[in-house]
Structure formats: C-alpha cells, structure tokens
UniProtKB/TrEMBL annotation:
Cited SUPFAM superfamilies: Acyl-CoA dehydrogenase C-terminal domain-like (SSF47203), Acyl-CoA dehydrogenase NM domain-like (SSF56645)
Ranges for domain Acyl-CoA dehydrogenase/oxidase C-terminal: 246-384
Name used for this protein in its record: Acyl-CoA dehydrogenase
GO terms for MF: acyl-CoA dehydrogenase activity; flavin adenine dinucleotide binding
Cofactor(s) recorded in Swiss-Prot or TrEMBL: FAD
Length: 394
C-alpha cells in the first residue's frame, strides 16, 4: 500500500526525457539524504538551534545538486527549477536542514536572473561548489512589518533598518537585502562581515531551520554590489523581487509535498502494525477514510506544485497565480495531514522519541514562511478576478 501511494505521487510514469531526468535526480537525492541525514541527525540539529547541517550541504554540493540550476559556464549543472524542486521535495521527506532553499533558490537564483557578469563570475562558481552559501531577506516584500531604507549619498548607497525572518542568514556569506528607495526598490549584495550589520537568531517553531533578524546601521553599498534598482521609468528591482518571492514560495510548497508524502507513509505503516480488537487499526473504516483523505491531499498538492515549478522555470516573474495556489494549498494540507497523522498514531505520536513532531513543526512553519496564507490567498483572488476582467479587492 505504501509503495503504491509513493508511485502515484512521484510523477515518474510519463516516460518523457524531462521526467526521466527528474526521476534520476530524485533517486540520487533520496539515497544521498537518507544516508547523510537520518532522523537522529535531524534531532541533533534541533538541539543545537537549527543551524544547517554542514555535512548534508557538503554531500549535496559534491553530487552537483547545489549548483543544479546554475549555468554550466559558472560550474553548475545547467538545469531548471523543475529539477531543483525535486531535490527540495526530497529534503522535505527528511526534514533536511540544508541551505539549498536559501542559497540555491534565493541567492543563486537572484544572481542568475539579474546579476552582472562580474557579479556572476565572482559568486556563482562558489555557490555552485557549495564553498559559499547565501540568502535573501524577503520579509517586507511578502507583507512583513520590518523595513530597510536605502539613501543615495556621495555616489553610493546607505542602508538602514531591520529585516526579520531571514532564512539561514547566520550560515551565509552573502546576503541579498531589499531596501526602499524614492523610486521603488533596490536589491543589494551585502556580506555579513560589513560594518554596521548584525545578525540575531529568532525563535521559531521548526528547530531544524534557523530564522534570523538582520539589523543594518549605516551600511554602505557601492554600485558594484547593487543587483537591481528601480528608476523613475524602470522596475528592475521590483521584477526581481517578484521572481524571488515566487521561487521561494514554490520551494516551500515543494518541501511541504515531501513532508506530506513521508507523513502518509509513516502513518500507513503504523496503522498496519498497530492492533486493536485482534485486528490492525488500519482495517477500520474510519481510519481508511482518514488515510484516503491524506492521500488525496498529497496528490492534489503534488500536482499544483509540479505546475508551479514548471511556471517558475518558464517565467518566475509572471506566475503569481500558479505559485500562490500551490503554496497555500500544499502548505495548509501538509499541516492538516500531520495533524491527522498525530491522531492516528495515538499517544506515541506525542512523544519526543517519535519522529512525527519534526514533520508537524516543519509543516506549521512552512504555512507562514515566505508569505502568510492570507497574503497568498489575496494574490490568488486578485489573479482570478483579473482573469475575469473584474476589479480586485480594495
């Protein structure tokens, strides 16, 4: 029963070259992550405050998965976001504590989309090799209250403000900081060691991840380190931030699909073993219905995430509707599946010794990471109304 459910949700049966490549990447990633990052490793990460696992990142880089989407001329694999999403799903299956989401999805993605040739030549080979990791602060863009302001002084930019809920900031060597300007937005490349910048860990639900707050006090940025900036008649930074928001949301949705898949497998295995009244509890009709609902949740989420990943790979700045549908649906239903699994596991599911709580906490954080449900639902509504030629909500 478990194998059949897994086959139905992997997307490996069409036989196209693209799907064959994704199946091979999935198999490679599963073998690598299962070996490098067993559940005991996840618990160790949680006990140490959620810093990314260096050994896991090292193995991902050695297998070429860190630079999967980076162009071959910079040492990458020349793949697309659809292949990267497969690896993110696998990490979700193992609650992997990796910088892949922050570094490959956000930092490498931003440089590939908008970097100058000098910026790409400097950073992309290091990011592809896993020698350097980076992240981006997207909180304000996605409806957060924190703000960074950029002012122009003596031919350079000065950043002041605060950015919260930044994924893996303390582990990175390169930070992408969006800031408000009189003409719109600016995206700057900043190294954590620059004077005036401090990083403070933030407490959060999922101990296998680290979220940080970045404070900037008169941090200077030269034009050479500006990735994109809006002008009076241009919106380069705005387009880049929109693309990064879509990439991040789709990545979290992919993680949630992997989470839901593993939770379903754990639950089906458990209800087949646990017995009451001399029969497996999985034979009871009520339990069958709940397991079936979990499977339907997983399959619909996987389909939406697959469509979102393809849309991001095609044009990350013009796929708002597909991404927000996938993000909201996959993350909400992964949390719902984890809650159902907790009920079906009974008392053992509430213990620290069982792995289920790791998946529940990851699913709960994913609902609010890179856009709260209300933010994405509002964007879905606006997109649907725009398609019908109707005015959006005020």
């Amino acid at each position: 029963m478990t194998d059949q459910m897994t086959d139905q949700t992997t997307g490996q049966t069409t036989g196209s070259p693209e799907d064959d490549d994704r199946a091979a990447i999935r198999d490679l990633a599963r073998r690598l992550v299962a070996t490098t990052f067993p559940p005991a490793r996840a618990r160790g990460v949680a006990e140490k405050g959620g810093a990314p696992d260096a050994d896991l990142d090292r193995e991902l880089a050695a297998a070429g998965l860190t630079g999967l989407e980076i162009a071959e001329k910079y040492g990458g694999g020349g793949g697309s976001f659809t292949e990267l999403a497969v690896v993110l799903e696998v990490l979700g299956e193992h609650v992997g504590a990796s910088t892949l989401l922050s570094s490959a999805v956000l930092c490498s993605g931003a440089l590939s989309l908008a970097g100058t040739e000098a910026q790409r030549e400097r950073w992309l080979p290091l990011l592809a090799a896993g020698t350097v990791s980076g992240t981006a602060a997207l909180g304000e863009w996605l409806g957060g209250r924190d703000r960074v302001v950029a002012t122009r002084t003596d031919g350079a930019w000065t950043l002041n403000g605060r950015a919260g809920n930044v994924l893996d900031a303390r582990a990175g060597r390169l930070l992408l900081i969006p800031a408000c300007t009189p003409d719109g937005w600016l995206v700057a490349l900043v190294e954590p060691s620059v004077p005036g910048l401090t990083i403070t860990p933030q407490a959060q639900t999922d101990e296998t991840r680290c979220l940080d707050e970045i404070t900037l006090g008169a941090v200077g940025v030269s034009d050479a380190d500006v990735l994109a900036v809006d002008g009076a008649d241009t919106a380069d930074a705005t387009r880049l931030l929109g693309a990064l928001a879509n990439r991040a949301a789709a990545a979290v949705a992919a993680d949630s699909v992997g989470n839901a898949r593993r939770v379903l497998d754990m639950t089906v295995g458990y209800v087949q073993q646990r017995r009451q009244f001399n029969r497996p509890v999985g034979s009871f009709q009520a339990v069958k219905h709940q397991a079936a609902d979990m499977l339907v949740n997983l399959e619909t989420s996987a389909a939406l995430v697959d469509e979102a990943a393809r849309a991001v790979a095609h044009d990350p700045s013009s796929c708002d509707l597909a991404v927000s549908l996938a993000k909201d649906h996959a993350c909400e239903l992964a949390a719902r599946n984890a809650g159902t699994a907790l009920q079906l596991h009974g008392g053992i599911g509430y213990t620290w010794e069982h792995d289920l709580h790791l998946y529940l906490k990851r699913a709960l954080l994913n609902e609010f990471l890179f856009g709260e449900p209300r933010w994405h639902r509002d964007r879905v509504l606006r997109g649907l109304l725009a398609d019908d030629g109707l005015p959006g909500p005020s």
